[in-house]
Amino acid sequence: MPEEALENKMVIKDLSMYYTDFKAIEDVTFDVPARRITALIGPSGCGKSTLVRCLNRMNDLIEGVRVEGEVVLDSENVYQQGFDTIGLRRRVGMVFQRPNPFPKSIYENVAYGPKLVGIKDKEELDFIVEDSLKKAALWHEVKTILRESGQNLSGGQQQRLCIARVIAVQPEVILFDEPCSAIDPVATQLIEDLMAELKENFTMVIVTHNMQQAARVSDFTAFMLVQEQGQPGRLIEYGDTNTMFTNPSDERTERYITGRFG
Amino acid sequence: MKGSRADKAATVVFWALGLVTIALLAFIIIEILARGFLTAINPKFFLGKPEAIKAGGGIFPMIISSLYLAALTILISLPIAIGAAIYMAEYAKKGRLNNFIRFCLDSLATLPSIVFGLFGLALFVIYFRWSYCLLAGAFTLAILNLPILLRSTEEAIKLVPNTYREASMCLGASRWTTIRQVVIPTALPGIMTSTILPIGRIMGESAAIVYTTGLFIRNIPISPFDTAAPLAGYIWYAQSEALVPDYRQIVNGGAALLLIIVFAIYFLARWAGNRYQQTKLLGPKMK
Question: How far does A130 lie from chain B, in Å, by closest CA?
Fold first, then answer.
């Protein structure tokens, strides 16, 4: 792969997050390079899901959550006063742990986002739906059943439908919160292949507790850890995925990667 | 061994209790239909005008009164219930105000319906000078039904998985858009069910309407300000006060008819709910 200069799509600076008084994550700093996949790994409860939800301010929806530090998207801090969170979530989409298609048709699921921004033209919507489903590698499986409920699909198909639904909004960044933890290995493979393809156009962040997955799909890896019960999750190491997995600089990273805890 | 015996005993007991419940219900339904079904399906009865003194009167205006009253009541209470349920389920923060509202609703739900009837009489019939009319009855029943309607609507909204809300917000929908586009459509079949059950209660309620809507009419009520005589109230009236010699037949036929109408509405609503789920939620065809 020819080396191009990496620009950072997002920069996380000294990010801490509290649930009322409890500090869930502390002083996390790392970069999310554009059109690359950044993996967040770490044992359960280390705050990686919490962290990824800070990137599109989904944590705002939970009562009592407070954030310190900065999340910079294209040189703008998304936590600055008056920042448009709805616009932010259009630019930074999210795929969840469990596939969560709406109880609507496959078509309506994908058209939901575009309709929100006022696209009403039937032909334009048809095009977006087809295009998004193609990009999510689902079109050929569903093109004859677009009117059927998205919830009738298999788990893996549902997850790709959710990816298509996000793609339809044309975000700049897609966050994946353990996208394969509820689906089988074959479907997982499909989604990993899909992510590799999407890299051309999108910046992605994937939370996973599956280290092989992180090693397979990501370009950069951030390792998080809670040192002791009750302490906040901290970033232990961040770097190029190859380096992290072959030659980690922190002993704790090495122990985690080699499967000695977590 | 002891465990399995206890298990068997429990199975028998619960089976028996279930059977008793079903038998009781079946007995009531069969009894009502056996006494009144033939009268109820006689067109002269269900399409006829009531008589004040002579035998052979029908109950058509009463049927219209009941349906009219139920429609008005739902029209008044449903928007309030849905609005309040959205507030309670989606916006209200846990705390004192929320607990207080719940306490008020629960208290309201336990009041005997005659209390609502007298309240309706004092406020709508006398103070507002509406006299005995459909609207007075509808407002009275709306208040009577609000707690149950609100609670069940709230439950229907709460059953919508949070992941739908998150997915919608993540696609750039505002909270209100999410409620409108995802939460309410998903909850709608549940909301419809929770609306239908009170309709049965509205149609069957007599204590709250005898003082607000009226007991006897000969002509079909047209305006909401017309006096009306809903079926349940008229059954009570015919049984206890009417001068017609065939009052027994009217009571039996009226009861059977009331049962049939409530069942019909219930199944119609279930059918409509399922249809809605199949068509509306699945959207338009693609070329």
Answer: 10
**Banded model confidence at residue A4, pLDDT cuts 50, 70, 90:** low
Instruction: Provide the residue range defining the domain that includes B86.
Output: 61-275
Q: Is residue B211 part of a domain?
A: yes
Instruction: Write the ipTM.
Output: 0.89
Mutate to test the interface with B, among A97, A104, A110, A134 (most CBs of B within 10 A): A104
Domains of chain B: total: 1
Residue in B163, B174, B281 nearest the CB of A86: B174
pLDDT of residue A230: 83
CA distance B286 to chain A (A): 7
Number of domains in chain A: 1
Does a structural domain hold residue B284? no
A1 part of a folded domain: no
**What is the rounded average pLDDT for all residues in chain B?**
89
For residue range A11-46, list pLDDT tens digits in order. Answer: 999 999 999 889 999 999 999 999 999 999 998 888
Interface contact flag, B171 A100, Cβ < 8 Å: no
B169 CA to chain A: closest CA distance, Å?
7
Q: Is residue A262 part of a domain?
A: no
Question: DSSP letter string over B162-214?
Answer: HHHHHHHHHTT--HHHHIIIIIHHHHHHHHHHHHHHHHHHHHH--HHHHTTT-
pLDDT greater than 80 at residue B251: yes
pTM, 2 dp? 0.82
Neighbour count for residue A245 (Cβ, 10 Å): 20
Residues sharing a CB contact under 8 Å with residue B85, sequence separation 6 or more, in sequence order: B150, B153, B154, B156, B157
